[in-house]
Amino acid sequence: MYGKFQQHLQTELAAIEEAGLYKKERNIVSPQSAEITLEDGSKALNFCANNYLGLADNPRLIEAAKKAMDSKGYGMSSVRFICGTQDKHKELEKAVSDFFHTDDTILYAACFDANGGVFEPLFTAEDAIISDSLNHASIIDGVRLCKAQRFRYANADMADLERCLQEAQSCRFRIIATDGVFSMDGNVAPIDKICDLAEKYDALVMVDESHSAGVVGATGRGVAEQFDCYGRIDIFTGTLGKAFGGAVGGFTTGRKEIIDMLRQRSRPYLFSNSLPPMIVAAGLETFKILSESNELHDRQQENVKYFRDKMMAAGFDIKPTQSAICAVMLYDARLSQEFAARMAEEGIFVTGFYYPVVPKGEARIRVQLSAAHTRAHLDKAIEAFIKVGRELNVIK
Ligand SMILES: *Cc1c(COP(=O)(O)O)cnc(C)c1O
Questions:
Q1: Which residues contact 341 (CB under 8 A, 6 or more apart)?
Q2: Does ligand 1 have an atom closer than 6 angstroms to the CB of 209?
Q3: To test ligand 1's pocket by mutation, which of 111, 185, 286 has the most ligand atoms within 8 angstroms of CB?
C-alpha cells in the first residue's frame, strides 16, 4: 500500500515546494533568546520569537524548574482527575486567576488544547458561536469540534459582529470568540465595544490572550485591563508558551461554573497528561516575577515604541500596533521573501508573510519585539532594515 501513498505524498510535497510554501526549520544550538547561535556557529538577532518578556532563558525560571524536579519528580504519568494533580498545579491555577482577576482556572498541555476543549463541553446545536475571521487556528478547530451554529464576522468589524448577533438571536445561548491581539497586524480586538454588543444582544464573551497577556494593558494583564472590562469577559484562554516563559502549557480562566464544567467534560483535559512539575513551578515563578515589578512589561513597550518610531522616520510603512507585533508592510509577496532572506544575511531573523497567511497584496515583514532586546539590538535591526530597504527600493 505505501508505494502509491508515498507517490501521492511526494507529488503533494513537490507542489508545496514549487509554490514556495515549504517550511524549513532553522537549527538553533543556543537557548532561545534575543541573540541566538546557529548550527554553523553563526549568531543572529532574533525578532521572530514570541518571547515577549524575555523569560525563555530567565535564570529564576530555570532554577525553579530544576528545584521542582528534585522535589516533585519528572512527570505525572496521569491525567489531572485520576492522580495527576499536585499542590503546585492548584497554586498555578490560583496564580493565573489572580493575574486575570477571574474566579478559577483550568490548565492544559497547550493553549491549542484549551481552545480545542472550551466550546464542545459548553454549547450544543441550539447555541451560536460568533467568531472573528482572523481568529487563531486553534479557535477555529475548537469551534469545528462543537455542534453549535457558526457565525463569522470580519476582523474587529463591530457592524459585522452586530449583524451576526442579530442573526443568532433565535439561538439559546450566544458566545463571541476573539483573539485579544491578532498575530499578523498586531492590532488589539476592541473588547469594550465587543462587551457592549454582547450585553445588548445577550451574548457571552471569550478572549484568547495568547499574544496579548503580558503585553497589552498598563501592567500587561491583557485586554480586560487595557479596556477596563474586568467582570465583562466570561472566558479567557492563554498560553505559557509566549510571554509567560515560552515553554509549554495553556489555560482557560474565567467564571466558576464554566471552569467547573470544563473539568468535568473538556476532552483535552480529561484525556491528556498533566503538566509536568518543572513547567508548573516555572509558571509559578513567572507570575511571581510579574507581580514583583512591571519592569519587563515596560521595557517591552518602550522597545516597540522605539523600533516603530525609528522605522517610520526611516520611511517604512508600519501598521499601527498596540502590541509586541510590528508589521512592516511591503505588499508584494516575492519582495517579502527576498527582504526576509536579505535580513537573515545581515544577521537579523524576521519573518516574511504573504497570501494566504495575510490578504492578497498585503505581504509584510513581521517583527516581534521583546523585553530581552537591548537598544543595541534594536539599532542593529533598524540599520539592517534601512540598508536592505534601500537596496530593494522600499525606501529612499
Ligand atoms: C500561540 C497561540 C495559541 C497556541 O498556544 P500553544 O500554547 O502554543 O498551543 C493559541 N491561540 C493563539 C491566539 C496563539 O497565538
A1: 352
A2: no
A3: 111
pLDDT tens digits, one per residue of 177-220: 999 999 999 999 999 999 999 999 999 999 999 999 999 999 99
**Domains of the chain with CATH codes:** 20-49+294-391 (3.90.1150.10), 59-292 (3.40.640.10)
Q: What is the mean pLDDT of residues 63-76?
A: 98
Contact 223 CB / ligand 1 (< 6 Å): no
Catalytic residue list: 183, 211, 242
- Reply yes or no on whether the pLDDT at 313 is more than 80: yes
User: How many Å apart are CA 327 and CA 245, to the nearest integer?
Assistant: 23
pTM for this model (two decimals): 0.96
Say yes or no to pLDDT of 24 above 90. no
Whether 208 is in the pocket of ligand 1, judged by its Cβ within 6 Å, is yes
Cα–Cα distance measured from residue 326 to residue 183, given in angstroms and rounded to the nearest whole number: 9
Ligand 1 geometric centre to CA of 341 (Å): 26
d(CA 289, CA 297): 11
Nearest to 89 by CA among 97, 261, 61, 59: 97
| Sign of the torsion angle spanned by Cα atoms 219, 220, 225, 231 | negative
Nearest CA to ligand 1 atom 15: 210
Tell me how far apart the alpha carbons of residues 151 and 6 are, in angstroms, rounded to a whole number: 38
- Distance of CA 295 from the midpoint of ligand 1 (Å): 24
Backbone angles phi, psi at 328, to 5 degrees: -95, 110
DSSP 8-state assignment for residue 31: P
Q: CB of 136 closer than 6 A to ligand 1?
A: yes
- Burial (Cβ within 10 Å: 0-12, 13-18, ≥19) of residue 39: exposed
Residues 6+ apart with CB under 8 A from 329: 316, 317, 318, 319, 362, 364
Mean pLDDT taken over the chain: 97
Å from CA of 251 to ligand 1 middle? 10
